[in-house]
User: Fold this.
Amino acid sequence: MNSLADFVMVSAMLFGIGVYGLITKRNALRLLFAVELMINAANLNFVAFEQYLPPAPGAQAALGQTFVLFSIALAAAEAAVILAIIVVAYRLHQDVDVSELKTMEG
Amino acid sequence: MIDFVSVAILLLSANSLLLPLLQIPKQRNPRLPGYVLAGVLAAVVVLIGLSTEYPGTIAWFGTLLSEDILGAVFAMVTVGITLAVTVASFDWQKGPNAPVYYSLLSFTALGMLLLSYSSDLLMLFVSWELMSLPTYVLAGFDKKLRSNEAAVKYAVIGAMSSAIILYAISLAYGLTGSTQISAVVQGFYQLLATQSSSSVLASLAILLFIAGFGFKMSIVPFHMWIPDAYEGAPTTVSALLAAATKKAGFVAAIRVVLAITTVYVLTKSPLFTTADVLAALALLTMTVGNISALTQKSMTRLLAYSSIAQAGYILIGFVAYANSPGSTAATIGMTGAVLHVINHAILTGVAFLAAALVLMQLRRADLGAYNGLGRRMPITALTLSIALLALAGVPPLSGFWSKLLLFLSVANGPFLWLAVAGILNSALSLGYYGWVVKRMYFDDPESPEKVPEPFWFVLVFAVMVGLIIGIGLFPQQAINFASGAVPNIAG
Assistant:
């Protein structure tokens, strides 16, 4: 079972699980996990396409892998920033439940 | 020949990295980091204005960036707004954290500058993140409950939108084998010309792009984070979010979505046309934004909803373009859209900065604080009134001309209903804009004493009001400026 369709299917499932997690979960850390799943779904897509499809004429070699390296680094930076914000939220609320965050209405 | 834009990029990068080191012990001048950033941003705006060779390439970046007028217009607008926010922040942020604050502003400006010139999806994504990550921190910069709440909501939604964009890019890469935007457009064209089964994936990629950019552009139904984030964040940062990073979302959408749209109309995709989707989003965005704004009690929240409604007007130009690229209507529509982006950046920026000044001096953001403001803070009240009336589209202020172009562009064709909806919405919006003006000039203040208005705020107000009235009185120059960017869209 090593065809391109398998990889794309797994990646679509990962993306779907991420979206599901974002919609149903209320714990800020779980939301972060869900976003990471979505990012990794895209990463899997990039590597699989790079492996199985011919590159477009004039495109750089190993473009998909390069893109994944950038996206992993950016995802790490994003996780660091969001975790820092969540730590502040925990200090203020003693909780990381986002449904508790409702001081502003309207 | 010196490449001015690379100098600007280098200057801004160095400034972003070095500014946090400016923590001199026993600082003589607490405003020094702000002055440095303001100087650098002013230099960057001048450098962008100096480069006149279009289309050009930017040294060191190869095919990642392309220097065109569209990029130059958006880079000038976004960096210019960051400059205004910086100058207005002189009195707001001057504690020990000021160097970090200004460094984050600088990184955001760099991200927006690179995003404006991006011609490759890789560069687009990296600069999108470079623009977004500092603003998550800026939104939570006050160590208060509300600021942190705004930051949590903004950061999680922002990360989700980045993930959606990344997935859309991965699909586009898989379908075309390239991340160069022009090559992607070409690839989509060939794909759809052969009518293979991949056209479903291509449609999905376009929808995901619209959704991902839509979160930043504050398009309904992707707007739910906007009011909370703008209200909770420090108000100068809200000005940056509403006036600058949102515009960067628009340039990304123009570069990617509209470029791909060109192909769609040519091949008559059976699934949907992008114009239909954009028209539905435009109608929803205008109406939901304006109706929600009517009942708000807080000024920043009102401005947040007004900013959502304005995004709907800009989308009308996108609809005109997506409906028939290359036609006169498309040119008028995109000129209107670019001009409205410029106007909206100035107007929303100055309105949020006025709200920031009121919040700083009176410690209140509810509309009651604005009663009789015309007598207590005359300059702020006058500025805010002009900005709000221009946002409503009252002639001869700047907002009128861009709205006129936008509504004209769809007046002949299947989307006439959108122009009618836009005009009705403008009338509706006068309800809440006029309400605030009425409060400022005809209601009695709670306490009669005058409130001081700091010099730097007044300077920003004066320049911005000059631009609003200038564009309003001499629309031809502004329209020429904006229409220069239109031919770059097709990619």
Q: What stands out?
A: The beta strands of chain B are 56-57, 66-67. Chain B has a mean pLDDT of 89.
